[in-house]
Design brief:
The structure holds two protein chains of two kinds. Chain A is of the alpha/beta class. Chain A contains 14 helices and nine strands. A five-stranded parallel beta sheet of chain B has the order 2-1-3-4-5, with helices on both faces. The relative contact order of chain B is 0.10.
Chain lengths: 337, 262
């Protein structure tokens, strides 16, 4: 199987020759930036550099996917949020303390927002990668869900208070913001994305599992129906209490965090959605060695997790050595099995 | 928490759960507070409070900000002192909120709503305390370090600190070492709290401490640090004075550090 076939099969829970290795969020590191001379912040805004840095996931690390979107703010920039682009050694972010919207009527997704340079850059990078690696590797796009857009555009605290005070207004806001999720998703599919990551941070670190059901499950079902490629939902943090609802969405996969136990998580989703994950970032990939990384890989494989990889965007100072330990551990596990 | 002083002198036995006269508070403690020391502490606090103060605490816990606003105003005009309303009403309520959040019984939106209720009461209290020259428990500078924009955890810590009568100067996110130094000099605070959620920004905590050393200010302040990736080990390595795993610990730590300051 090629990497691409392997990933697409695993997303559909079909048989694979070995478990694919995948990071549907970001594999960018400072070492990789140096290696291919494509650094932050440029690699977040220049399609050619973005593609070059993203490709290292396959060429240097031996992962089965390529993900060109390292941040979670490309479309937020396109709809008008103020962005702090940062330096080589840090991710860009939205200045959430300067929100751009405060009520449903403020919400405006510009008609041609996918043509905004920071949105278009991703589309161009996908085209470049598709041309160069399209037959061998799965190229994954990323479109932000409305809950995460709410944090960026309304400010986290305002948005969370609104969700408690006024559920109807919150639903109206989510319903209007979802336009960007769908349009940006479609644009990336047209550019050639094989699958899409959809981060929507309704995490147990912030809100209850009941919240996910109340506000997001049905909308996520709609995304799975409308966006005609496999969708990988990403929510980092504690989520096992809402995996039952997540499993009902019809999405292909859920990218889950190390705060959730692999075996327990597999039991909850019970074959209705593939899991991707869940190697710990700060404590393991960043701070420990290849053996510790391999142990977490094995815990996922033993549990039957369909795609193995880091839990979220990897820390930028993670060593290449630790990242290469992931595909190696997967191969060793299959050999021993 | 200085619970001892809140137990009425002359009480012959330790207060029991049944002694809390406010039904809502009693049920909340019974349902949500499982740690023995915390249970005893809260029972002592609530039984020492008058029914009116218990009602204010209950208003904070159930996030009814309009009610807390009105009840606080009423209590102040009918003879309860500002300090009593703050201690036995607002702070007593927030103490339970912090425990419920730490134990995942409630989540961030609910804590934000409780903090809003507390603030509705504090707006009546603060001017009185300022006018009468009553010093806050301590002065704390809080900020998320340079390059990091995660601020939810830091903000919850600030709410809990304010809910424990600390005066907090919030420097927001992306705070440079110089910003911390300036704030300390301007406000004369002796506790600095730093938050970081990214491994890429954690080193900026150490850099801030170094900047204080270079500016000859290290001995004037105590550093407390926190945020998901930060551990006691990291805290020790960077030379911080304390580490807190959650907002309840943050308050305990700030109290400990301000006691040490004397
Ligand atoms: C919500 C969230 C976000 C929100 C942030 C919104 C905001 N305004 O804060 C959004 C979606 C915007 C976001 C963005 C990003 N995030 Co984020 N995010 C999270 C998440 C899911 C929860 C964090 C949180 O708020 N928790 C709830 C609060 C209440 O907990 P807390 O912050 O830990 O605070 C408590 C304690 O730590 C303590 N505490 C906190 N501060 C202090 C201070 C003191 C003095 C004391 C005593 C105690 C204390 O008390 C608090 C209350 O109990 C975590 C997941 C996780 N596993 O932690 C990832 C996580 C932190 N994010 C991560 C990443 C990678 C990112 C991005 C880089 C993603 C990207 N590709 O762009 C960007 C960051 C950009 C930047 N430059 O900052 C990674 C960081 C990895 C690492 N360690 O390097 C995490 C760990 C996810 C993961 N599993 O890998 N994120
Ligand atoms: Zn994440």
């Amino acid at each position: 199987m090629t990497s691409r076939q392997r990933v697409l099969a695993a997303l559909n829970r079909e048989p694979v020759d070995r478990t694919p290795v995948c990071n549907p969020t970001s594999v960018a590191t400072v070492e990789l930036m140096d290696l291919v001379d494509a650094h932050f912040p440029d690699a977040n805004r220049d399609a050619e550099k973005m593609a070059r840095l993203a490709a290292t996931s396959y060429t240097e690390l031996g992962f089965d996917t390529i993900m060109p979107v390292f941040s979670i703010i490309q479309e937020s920039s396109a709809v008008g949020c103020k962005i702090q682009w940062e330096e080589k050694d840090n991710w860009p972010t939205v200045r959430m303390t300067e929100p751009i919207w405060s009520e449903p009527d403020d919400i405006r997704i510009p008609a041609d927002f996918v043509k905004h340079p920071d949105a278009k850059c991703v589309l161009d990078a996908i085209r470049i990668l598709k041309k160069e690696f399209g037959d061998e590797v799965a190229v994954i796009g990323k479109t932000m869900g409305p809950w995460s857009m709410g944090y960026h555009c309304f400010g986290v605290e305002r948005f969370l208070l609104m969700s408690l005070d006024d559920p109807d207004m919150t639903r109206t806001c989510l319903d209007r913001m979802k336009q960007s999720t769908i349009e940006y998703g479609i644009a990336q599919i047209e550019a050639g994305a094989d699958a899409l990551t959809l981060p929507d941070h309704a995490t147990g670190d912030l809100v209850s599992g009941e919240y996910y059901e109340r506000y997001l499950r049905d909308m996520h079902i709609e995304f799975a129906e409308t966006l005609k490629v496999p969708i990988i939902l990403h929510i980092c943090g504690r989520t096992v209490d809402r995996m039952e609802f997540i499993a009902q969405t019809g999405m292909a996969a859920f990218h889950y965090d190390s705060k959730n136990n692999p075996a327990e998580s597999m039991e909850v989703v019970a074959g209705r959605i593939s899991l991707v994950g869940n190697i710990n970032n700060p404590e393991t990939l960043f701070s420990k060695g290849p053996e510790d990384v391999a142990a977490e890989v094995r815990a996922n494989l033993d549990a039957g997790v369909q795609l193995v990889g880091p839990e979220c965007a990897i820390p930028l100072q993670t060593s290449i050595e630790n990242l290469k330990a992931i595909p190696r551990a997967v191969r060793e596990w299959h050999r021993a099995a | 928490m200085a619970s001892g002083s809140l137990i009425p002198t002359g009480s012959l036995r330790m207060a029991k759960l049944e002694d809390i006269s406010n039904d809502f508070l009693r049920e909340e403690v019974e349902t949500f507070v499982t740690r023995e020391d915390e249970r005893e502490n809260l029972i002592a606090r609530y039984t020492a409070a008058t029914p009116k103060m218990q009602a204010i605490a209950a208003g904070v816990v159930s996030a009814r900000h309009h009610d807390v606003d009105a009840m606080t105003a009423d209590a102040l005009t009918t003879g309860t002192s500002a300090l009593d309303v703050m201690d036995h009403g607002l702070i007593a309520g927030m103490a339970l909120v912090g425990i419920k959040f730490r134990d995942m019984k409630i989540f961030v939106p609910e804590v934000l709503a409780c903090a809003r209720a507390m603030k509705a009461g504090m707006k009546h209290i603060e001017p009185i305390l300022v006018a009468s020259g009553i010093a806050p428990t301590g002065k704390v500078i809080m900020g998320t370090v340079k390059g990091d924009l995660h601020d939810i955890g830091k903000n919850l810590c600030i709410m809990m600190l304010r809910g424990a009568a600390f005066q907090v100067i919030d420097l927001g996110v992306d705070t440079s070492p110089d910003d911390f130094i300036e704030a300390v000099e301007e406000h004369g605070a002796n506790i600095v709290g730093m938050s970081a959620l990214l491994t890429t920004t954690m080193p900026n905590m150490a850099k801030t401490i170094e900047a204080f050393i270079d500016a000859d200010l290290r001995d004037d302040v105590q550093f407390m640090v926190g945020g998901a990736p930060v551990t006691q080990i990291f805290a020790d390595e960077m030379g911080a004075d304390g580490y807190g795993d959650n907002a309840v610990e943050c308050v305990d730590l700030a109290k400990k550090l301000s006691d040490e300051n004397g």
